[in-house]
Amino acid sequence: MSDPDQRSSAATSPSPALVKQSLRVWLKMLKATKHVEATVREKLRIEFDTTLPRFDVMAALYRFEEGLKMSELSSALRVSNGNVTGIIERLVADGAVLRVPVAGDKRAMLVRLTHKGREEFAKMAAAHQLWINEIFGSLSPDTTARLISMLDTIEHSQGLSPGEDQDA
Amino acid sequence: MSDPDQRSSAATSPSPALVKQSLRVWLKMLKATKHVEATVREKLRIEFDTTLPRFDVMAALYRFEEGLKMSELSSALRVSNGNVTGIIERLVADGAVLRVPVAGDKRAMLVRLTHKGREEFAKMAAAHQLWINEIFGSLSPDTTARLISMLDTIEHSQGLSPGEDQDA
DNA sequence: GAAAATAATTTCAAGTATGAAATTTCATGC
DNA sequence: GCATGAAATTTCATACTTGAAATTATTTTC
Lengths: 168, 168
Hints:
2 copies of one chain form a homodimer.
Chain A: H1 16-48, H2 52-63, E1 68-69, H3 70-77, H4 81-93, E2 97-102, E3 105-113, H5 115-136, H6 141-155
Antiparallel strand pairs in A: 1-3, 2-3
Chain A binds a DNA duplex through α4 and β3.
């Protein structure tokens, strides 16, 4: 290490100024993320009469045409099991999702999009890409690449043990 | 503008590759943010037996010692009015928050931390700073500064009309 | 100064979200 | 073959979140 006062380590307590800067960037990140999320939520509601959690579930199911087990779904989305149960219930009621028992295992359920669900999601996904591009298109490709790399660093910082991030 | 195919505009439809890159960075940002949030949530739960929404409310009240009206609180936190009502109810029940009627206005309520609430929050805030620093301290001050600037760009991209972001 | 518009909150219905407990089923050891 | 533990889901209690409707109090307008 080549900086006697610039980086925090386990041994030396970080300078108050740097701690404050960490806090600042985190609050900024949170605010920017909430801004984008709120935009997407509102557009999903207005244009497609749906919600972000439903969109997220459908996105996961769209990728895995063969279907996903409930537990796979909840770990892919990083939400609790009980949560997924409720969202799937409503999607099934709306005819967007189908539940299929798994062949050799009476415990498990395979969940997949219906044809109607796939068609609906395709439309939403196309619109979603445009919304996101309206926001992130203002960054140059180079800046975007650097941003991704910084986010990667953050995502792989410690802080918590469990889960350990397998990609979705 | 000096790039015939590198930036999206209202006139020219963005290239699919750039749209995909926008989507990638957004998903990455969402994932990193959720990672940090989950870390904070879990630490608040384990170490202080509290939740992130409660922490956020207390943080706002900590800043405004004189207290805030319910509506000021909900707009500062950018959450709905009804939401704040419930969180404050629980904080009052726990003796962390006090409700005071406003002098000249029988509709409004001033909400402020009790002494106990201030003390509790001070401890949590100190711990919170360390947690955040454990994560964001891995970025150099320079990188952090650039990250803040990028996030600023994102936050001020259009996408939605309402609210228009006055700072909290 | 009564009626109408505004403002500050709460209430409400529905949906999300969590972690823990309960259920049912499967796999193994013995 | 059965007890035991692990796996897959659901159920449950609680809390958070939203947008809209309802309530109560203030301000404006005529």
